Amino acid sequence: MGRGVFCGLVAFIVSASHALSADGARPAKAPPASSPKSFAEKWDLEYGGSATNDFNYRGFSVSNRRPSGTVYVRPVYDGLYVGLQATTLDIPIDTPGALDFYAGYRRPIGPVVFEVRANYYHFPNSVIPLTSISSSFDYWEIQARPVWAVNDNLVLIGHAAYAPDFINSGASETWLSGTAIVKGPVTPLPGWLGYASGELGHHRFGINDRGVDVPDFWAWNVGAGLVYKHVTFDLRYYDSNLSKEECFVVTGDTGATPGGAPSAANPLGLRSNWCSASIVGKISFAASLNRP
Q1: 3-class DSSP state for residue 84?
Q2: Any idea which architecture 17-30+43-288 has in CATH?
Q3: What pLDDT, in 10s, does the model give residues 148-165?
């Protein structure tokens, strides 16, 4: 299965922090009480997509600092849902992108929406980096996320994710983060919603099958955006506390350059800029059959 064939760990996740700002900017409160819904009324179909100049995954690029696109579809029944998302990537694994199959449940309780989900990430036609040898890098992950609408202008989001065998490398992955969003109407633009948000998260990895203790690190982002009906425009600053040498160990960037400080995990001292500061712009579309 190609476990531990290289030091770097790279992947994509559908509910990464990159999408949280838009999620929180939309209403998170439970709908007002009404008569029980019929079987047909409990169904919905959510769909959408996005385009960005750089897909940042919890602190590092998984698109080689290049544009990336995503589309998804998600049938929902009374809070239960399944989904499929396809994303273009540019990572050391020689694959055209990632397919994310997932199932979850979300339920509003007062001002808080609780959500849990399980994801299976599939990298089609993947081969071992710098070879033509086919191998599987697929893996499972579980996630939990409460979204608390404190009032009409403030939303707080927690996000926890755990993968026991990240990209089939033998190393576990844990992500914990918190996000705060301040939002409100844009007076000069009727119908538009503006927001500003920031997220701080910690990425923890285990030891992979090659015996490499993959570096843990902090990552953060701050930005602002506009929401109009189903469309969100977001501009965001990303950074982490990883050195460029540690960034190579985490990402396995095949374009890394020499000249850094050697270490046991990175004996050649290769350096990657995939984890350094970046400005990311994103436009996304999210709608459903039942959303007016």
Answers
A1: strand
A2: Beta Barrel (2.40)
A3: 999 999 999 999 999 999
